[in-house]
Amino acid sequence: xxxxxxxxxxxxxxxxxxxxxxxxxxxxxxxxxxxxxxxxxxxxxxxxxxxxxxxxxxxxxxxxxxxxxxxxxxxxxxxxxxxxxxxxxxxxxxxxxxxxxxxxxxxxxxxxxxxxxxxxxxxxxxxxxxxxxxxxxxxxxxxxxxxxxxxxxxxxxxxxxxxxxxxxxxxxxxxxxxxxxxxxxxxxxxxxxxxxxxxxxxxxxxxxxxxxxxxxxxxxxxxxxxxxxxxxxxxxxxxxxxxxxxxxxxxxxxxxxxxxxxxxxxxxxxxxxxxxxxxxxxxxxxxxxxxxxxxxxxxxxxxxxxxxxxxxxxxxxxxxxxxxx
Amino acid sequence: xxxxxxxxxxxxxxxxxxxxxxxxxxxxxxxxxxxxxxxxxxxxxxxxxxxxxxxxxxxxxxxxxxxxxxxxxxxxxxxxxxxxxxxxxxxxxxxxxxxxxxxxxxxxxxxxxxxxxxxxxxxxxxxxxxxxxxxxxxxxxxxxxxxxxxxxxxxxxxxxxxxxxxxxxxxxxxxxxxxxxxxxxxxxxxxxxxxxxxxxxxxxxxxxxxxxxxxxxxxxxxxxxxxxxxxxxxxxxxxxxxxxxxxxxxxxxxxxxxxxxxxxxxxxxxxxxxxxxxxxxxxxxxxxxxxxxxxxxxxxxxxxxxxxxxxxxxxxxxxxxxxxx
DNA sequence: TTCAATATGTCAATCGTTTGACATAAAAGA
DNA sequence: TCTTTTATGTCAAACGATTGACATATTGAA
Lengths: 325, 325
Known about the structure:
The structure is a homodimer.
Chain A: H1 4-11, H2 15-23, H3 30-43, H4 49-56, E1 61-66, H5 72-87, E2 91-96, H6 101-113, E3 118-121, E4 138-141, E5 151-154, H7 156-169, E6 174-179, H8 189-201, E7 205-210, H9 218-231, E8 237-240, H10 243-255, E9 265-270, E10 283-286, H11 289-304, E11 312-315, E12 318-320
Parallel strand pairs in A: 1-2, 1-3, 3-4, 4-5, 5-11, 6-7, 6-8, 8-9, 9-10
Antiparallel strand pairs in A: 10-12
Chain B binds a DNA duplex through residues 3-5, 13-17, 19-20, 22-23, 25-29, 32, 47-57.
C-alpha cells in the first residue's frame, strides 16, 4: 500500500506539501495541487485512516450495542443510525450483545480499546454502576442511567395508553398485555404501567405475562401465548409490547380459530416495516425510529464537540390503526 | 486516557516490560506481572487498538457491505457474520449501500482507507471491473466476480427447482415468479432460470415479473403484484424470490379474497425468522444463513492468513413446507 | 565456581500521518 | 524598490504501541 511518502516522491514534493493538499491548509498553488492529485491517482493512494485516527485522537467511529441486528426493530434502528452517521463521516461498529451480560461488558471494553468516539447503547443487561467509568460520549435507548447520560425513548406511557384505550374503546372486556422483561430497568416498562393503570381505571379485567430474557426462543414464546389464551379463553384484546410479539399472537390466534379483529383485537408496538404486511395488517404504536436514530447520532456528535445537548429525548408516538383492531 | 507509559511508571517498570506482559512474550516474573496488572487496573488502562493496528498493520476489522441491515435477510446475515467475527476477535463495520452505486463505491474506498482486513460484499450494483483494484481479502455473496474472488451462495438453481416443482406437484396450472432484478449479474438469477426451465419442461403456463432496483418502495411492490394478479386472475401458484416479497403476495391475496393455499399457493425464498410467523406460515426455500455467514468470515480469515480456500461455496438449500402450499 | 536460564532495563526504530516552527524564494502590490 | 503575500521546503516531534538488539543482574543447577 502506498504511503504519503510515495505520493510525495512521485509528485516531486515533500510530505508536508502532500499533507497540506490532503487537509486543505496553508498555501498551495493549483499546479502543485494537481501534481499531487495525479500522483495519488496513479498510485491509487488512500490515506491511512488508522494513522490519522491515531494522530488526531478521533476515530470517527461510533459503537452500537444492541441485542441483535437480526431483530427487525433493531435492524431498522441500526440501518438508520448507520445512515445518519455516514452522512457526517462516521462509521458504525455493530455489536450484538444477544442480551448477554458478559458480551455486553466485553463489547464496551472492546469499543473503548478501539477508541470509538461514542457509544450508542440499545442493550441493557448491565448494572447502572458499570457505566460509571465509561467516560465516553454515550447515548442510551430506552434506559435512564445517570444524571449525565442522555437517553432516547419513545413516549412509552403514551404508547401504552393509546394501545390500551383503543382496545377498551373497541369494546374489549378482558385485555392482556405481553410485556418485555420488567426486571431490566427499561423505560419501556411504562407501556406496561399505562396498561395496568388504564385498564384498572376503566374497570376492565386484565392480565399480564412477562417475557423472559432470551429473546429468540421461538417455541417458548409460542407456549407462553398459547398458555395465556387457553387459561383465559375470554381474552378479547391483547397489547403486545413489540410487533414481533404481536406476530406470534396473530399466528396463534389463527391456529386457535380466533378471528381477528372479531373475536380478539391486537395492538403491537414499534411499527416495524413488516408489520403492515401481516395478515391482517397490524394495528400498532409507531415509534419514529428514523428520527430517534438521527437523534442518537446527533447526541454523540454534540458530546464529541462539547456542545450542549438535551438529556431527555422522548419522541412522540403515534397510533397506526390497521386491521387487527 | 492512560497510555502504556503511565502504566509503566505506576508499576515501576519500563514500557518494554509492560508490553511484554501485554503480549506474553519474553521472560516475566509473576511478581512483575502482578504489579503491571494492578497498575493497569488502577488506571483503568485499555491498550489503544488504533496504535496497535497501525503497528501490526492489521486492523482486525471486517467491512460488510449489504443493501441494508433493515432487510430481514441481510439483518440476519449481518447478525451471524458479526457473531462469528467476534468469536475470533474481529469487529464488523456495517455499510448499507441501499443498492446505490455511488454509495457502494464510497464504502469500498472508505473501508480501504480504514485498512479493514477484508470485505464481505453482499451488495452488487458495481461493474465487475471496479473490483479489480481492490487488492484485499474479499468475499462475495451471490455473485461471481472473478477467477480469484471466492463467493458464497445458496444452491439457487436447486432452490428454484424445488419451489417450482412443488407448485407443479401440488397441482398448479399457471404459475408466476417474482424475481429480483435480473440486470444485476447475480447468481440468484438461477432461481428464475430454474423456474422458467421447469415450468416449460412440465408444460405449465408461466409468467415472470421483475423487481426494480429500489428495494423498499412499498407501494410499488404492491402495485406490481396487484397488477399481476389482476391481469392473470388464473394464476394459482407464485414463487417469490424472497420471503419479504412473499409477504406482499400473501397480503394482497388476502385483500383479493384469494385463499391460500386453496386458490393460490405461494413459495418464498430465504426462510427468514419471521416467515414462520406469517399467516398462513410460509412455505419457503431455506438458505442456511448461519452457515453461509460463518463461511464468509472463515474465507476472509483464510485469505488474511494466506491459507488455501475454496472459490466456490455453494450451500445446499432446503424446502421448508409450511401452510402456503 | 561456573554456566545457563530467567528477569528486566535501555535505546531506538517503526507503523503513517499531522503539525508547528522556521527558512527561503518567487510573485504581487504599493 | 520595498514589502507583503503566496508557495514550498526542511526538520522533527507527536500520536501509542511493538519489537529487535543488546546489556546487565539475579537465580539456580551442575
